[in-house]
Amino acid sequence: MDLVADNLTAGYPGHTAVRDVSLGVREGEVTVVVGPNGCGKSTLLRCMARLHRPAGGCVRVGGADVWRLRPRAVARRVSLLPQVPEAPEGITAAGLVRFGRHPHQGLLRQWSSRDEAAVTRAMADAGITDLADRRLDRLSGGQRQRCWLALALAQDTPVMLLDEPISMLDLGHQVEVLGVIRHLAAGGRAVVMVLHDLTTAARYADTLVAMRDGRIVDHGPPRATVTPALIRTLYGVDADILAAPGDGAPVVVPRHERAGRGGDAEESSADAGVAACTSEKGTPP
Fold this sequence. Notes:
By secondary structure, the chain is α/β, with parallel strands linked by helices. Helix content is 35%, strand content 27%. α4 runs antiparallel to α5 (141-155).
């Protein structure tokens, strides 16, 4: 099932976060959205999930305008893992993941063996089976992140939107989770992820979408899209682009000197630090 944003504009009082964005996400592919902090990435995902009403344009899933569908109908087609999710106090890991089956319930369809199987499979894929009876608020940040991912997996939608799904995971769990996401896409799902690490994004994306100031400034296959000019446009950083051994995926290696640009100095410095850390530690295989 495809997801399409058409001339989308959205924001908040006094601020336009997304400006005239058009984007198509195809089933069987992973689309990764990158860009500096505050460029509109999370707002774009919320609009695509029918959680933030746009000021202009539309979002269609399977050809249907999401704002003409009931919320439950959209939740059976599109799942969203937000950047800062919130859970009921005292809930266990398994209890949280079961919420993913809520859109599939109704007066004529109660909890079934199919729902239980979906929860069990999602917890196994996210590597949290052994955490099933643990309280969420007593888990580490990385463990909680995997529980939230399992909830999105249990929702079992043809379109998945993931906002920084690996932000609190160590390198080993990052590789595992990204492997699961690639496997889901290969099985026919359309996946959109927001990532900050450009090297990781370039390795796991079929299509890379670069945003700045609410607009898409470039998009396409990572090898064609990730260039020194793009890094300078997004972050004000001079960088070399190397080819990773084996698959040739772009590896971003920032230089010591920052390229001068007006504004966003604090944000670009933070993002440069993330990229520098990546180049020092290496990338997932």
